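Hi there,

I know you've been waiting on this one. I reran it after we fixed the sequence typo, so this is the corrected version. Both the input and the resulting structure follow.
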Amino acid sequence: MIQTVGRPARLEGAVALPGDKSISHRALLLNALASGAAHVSNLCHGDDRASMLRCLRGLGTRIVKHSDCGVTAADECFRVHGRGSDGFDEPSTVLDAGNSATTLRLTAGLLAAQPFFSVITGDSALRSRPMARIVAPLTQMGAAVTGRRGNSLAPLAVHGGSLRGIVHEPAESSAQVKSCVLIAGLHAIGATTVSQPSESRDHTERMMKAMGADVDANGAEVTVRRSELKSIDVRVPGDTSGAAFWLVAASCHPNARVTLEGVGINPTRTGLLDILKAMGARIRIENPRENAGEPVADLVAESSDLSAVEVSGGVIPRIIDELPVLALAACFARGRTVIRDAQELRVKESDRISATVDGLSRMGARVEERPDGISIQGGTPLTGAECRSFGDHRIAMTMGIAGLLAGGATVVTDAEAAAVSYPGFWTTLNELSHQRP
């Protein structure tokens, strides 16, 4: 699919975001692990949701979609019938995580404690992503986990069983790795501690705590002890990463006002919001509230005069998914913005450092690729060009937003990649910019 985007005279409107992908995954998996039944509404849409549902159902979890739910008053709700910690079925076939690294890594933590054999894999892109970072701690806990290239790539074969708690100190902070180990730790004898170099997304430990787990969080260190979870109803907040695209669009467009409704504002996820404010973005937080332990609010973003910043160190894990669109925002800031310590971007759905530099360079931006990040000299107007998505949803959407801000027409190839996490992205873009599809 090819998407053509132009710069509108005005960018305005209200956006109801899809459910947060990270929280959606955890609401499904942890409720499958729990005793009882739970209603989960406002789930993320797209292929990643389907991947988690497929894997959990492959383990015997009954998950029923219905549209007349009297509990959540939502248009779409999923009733998850928990299997408890030891109630899963040995899968009769290979579990398929599709393109979803979150599904594979979190499910691997569940599988490590099950007394049966299983195999989990994904598409060609996922099979090239690093898995040694979860294989090592799960093996140390007592599971037998093997994979390709010295147990570093999927498919992963898992012989689960009795686990023991460990202290895991990963070299890099990763919410997916942390969550994998903590999920396995729910079934381990003794305490399981993950001590990271810096804080990462804390959705897993927040939800575990809300479901009755014995879990303690102290900054970048989290400890969980053997626990039985109790089901909890969850209305998933609007996706923080999805909100990032519209925050950047409104901040950089010369005539814009966009309202984002019901967005998750978990402090471990608002790195981009904090950085945009530091750059001078006019963004207001309105109607703050809480849902199942997660803070939620409405965000209002308007045209802004931005200044360059340096981004590195401990903030990087909090904004890792938003860095491509932050690089775009930097193109409209006075001065030079430098993004460092972001080598994790090279092993996402694409090499997002190279892909971001490729797209922005095509549009005339003054960007320089670095081994661990990007340097952007702001102030050069962008011109529409043909840009590739590289099959990566975040790159497709970043180039789409760039098209709203550039002179002339921007053509995004393989634009359907956006559907992985945000199926309605192009429709919302056309509505806000009052452009016809």
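Quick highlight: The radius of gyration is 21 Å.

Best,
R. S.
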